[in-house]
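Annotated sample (chain length 425).
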Amino acid sequence: MATLAVYGGEKAVPDGSIKPWPPVDKTDEEMVLNALHSDKQARGDHNIAFESEFAEWNGNKHCLLTNSGTAALHMGLVGCGISAGDHVLVTAYSWSSSATCILHHNAIPIFVDIDFDTINMDVDKIEAAITPQTKAIVAVNLHGLALDMEKVMAVARKHGLKVVEDCCQSHGALFNGQKVGTFGDAAGFSLNQNKCLSAGEGGMFVCNSDEVYEAAGKLWSFGETARPEQSRDYHAYALGWMYRNNELTAAYARAQLKKYPYYFDTLRANGQYLQETLNGIPALIQPTEPEGHTHNWYNYNLRINPDCVDYPDMSRFRHAVVAALQAEGIPVSVWQQFILPEMTVFQAKNAYGGGFPWSIPGADEGVDYSPENFPVAQRHCDSYMALVMALRAPNGLDVAEKIGEGIRKVFENVDQIDPDKILGE
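Output written by the structure step:
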């Protein structure tokens, strides 16, 4: 029986084996230096070029570079005409922005429990969650796995709902051969350093409708109808934010986008290797890639099979497993420790003071954020751990092999895990 590193055994992944993300080379430096020495550092040629290049790469008519994926999602809802008091369906488990972007325009999130296998919104529960005030769905393609967008769009068309895709983690992911961000009425992507396409911070709003694009563009830049590179009258025609980005970020994003095919292929190969090498470990629930879905493996999620654990507190046991994996040199972490309906902003129903926007007449009717209504999301939240960047370029199969050995070592010896010994009494 192997001695776990957390108890003094040898590490499965030696220090220095995993290279940092993202890889930066001369092409990044040259592009960013070009922007640095330009006479335009706010919005200029690199912004405009990146928008064109990303739209072409993803298959969209329109793209606007934003300062975050959250901003892009907010723009999507505004572009789709969502207004104060409207209800918008969203998954019960995701990053907070998937739901708070709804609050940003004074609309009301309505949560839908997840499907345990995919960790995405349970598409078979969407229709039952629709209220008379429901106007849209935020369709989150979580951890790099696309939703069943055929089912999502069928429900949306049946009930006259708009669809904003949250693609912040899912660059290049496919459903039936079609890229995410091309199914709904609008979509948002992120350029945060954690993402598979990174420029430090930033995001992209995309859509195909001229009308949606123009409405979202007003929110993006002070409520104006013209972009900064156009002739502006500096008149606010609608409520607007400042969601634009700068030339240095745009230049970095352009350089990284050129390398994305290599990044994507590397992640695909490493993720597939783990799928094969970790198969059949009783204590481990592996992530799934259903037929017709192409995962980008933004997160490789490991979950503990409760049938193999004799410990009363699954969440605490999970943290002990995380510590054991980290001791083996595997940089796993617990990404999100709360399901969204449990977060204080939703429990208090008070985003802006005075109970707003839930205090809008009729807006709160039938809205119930009781955590027990979302048992599948809670089950996942208590038992998972995420491997986020270690499978990305320049780390190849040699690194994936070491990581696989370490994961197998811990999960095949899960009976050695003593939370009190590892975490303290």
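Annotation: The first strand starts at residue 62 and ends at 66.
Annotation: The CA atoms of residues 28 and 95 lie 29 Å apart.
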